[in-house]
Amino acid sequence: MNRLARFRPALWLALLLASGLACAQSGQSFSLDAVVDTRFARNDGPIVLSVTPGGAAEAIGLQVGDHLMAINGVSLRVQDSQSRRLEQLVAGSDRTVVLEVLRDGQTLNLSGTLSRVDQATATGCGYVSAIDPTPGVSGDVHPLEITMIDGKSTPLQAQNRYRLTPGEHVLVTREQIPAHHFSPNQARQRGLMLDRKLARAYKAIVVEIEPGMRYSLGARLIRESMDGDAIRANAYWEPVVFKGRAEACR
Q1: Are 36 and 17 in contact (CB under 8 A)?
Q2: May I ask the CATH class of domain 2-117?
Q3: Which of 86, 129, 177, 245 has the fewest C-beta atoms lying within 10 Å of its C-beta?
Q4: What are phi and psi of 76, to 5 degrees?
Q5: No. of helices (H) and no. of strands (E), the chain
Q6: pLDDT digits over 207-216, tens only?
Q7: Which of 12-21, 88-97, 175-184, 191-200 shows the lowest mean pLDDT across its residues?
Q8: What is the DSSP letter of 55?
Q9: Are 194 and 201 in contact (CB under 8 A)?
Q10: Which residues fall within 8 angstroms of residue 120, CB to CB, at 6 or more apart?
Q11: So where are the chain's domains?
Q12: Pairwise CA distance, residues 76 & 74, whole Å
């Protein structure tokens, strides 16, 4: 399991919506360092799924669960493509952004600067998969579902693998841990948490893709965090890459 150190779980999340969202100016690109769920248009704005520790969004004060209602005064509380509008707003931000967010029923205004993004290019491809057999017994790693890759929703029907370019990619996941791993009370708390948190129950992981490699993802059950408080806080699992193996790019 030493390879897991190379993959940062849940909390990098550059705002890479639709097509690697970044603001390109003078040969430079910028990122908010957050992943926002734009799969469903919302009247209160899309939900922030996760924030990179030490990144732009954290410095600005953005938090997981915030609703992003506006960027630089332009509303995201719309019913058309929020993903496209987010791209346009960040691309036109000149690196400085003012965010209007809804947090616990209160409207906040946050401001700061975007992070610089390395524009290095690489050739070839790699793969990620969530259907490879998981080491449930030896590693307590169980199935998960990949729901988004770099801000794009994955097909509803599970795929054998997803082909990605080399470099860092943000994968949003939800656990599919079999029910028999939970006591009746734990299962009840889990169900209540999932109903309450909705999109915030999903977790993200950043995987650095190397050419000619296939990475297998799973949900690691954290046995020491299965009390009621931990389950209600969705702290009982984390997405991990449990295996990497060579696979030719096709």
Answers
A1: yes
A2: mainly beta
A3: 245
A4: -110, 5
A5: 5, 18
A6: 889 999 999 9
A7: 12-21
A8: S
A9: yes
A10: 167
A11: 2-117, 126-246
A12: 7
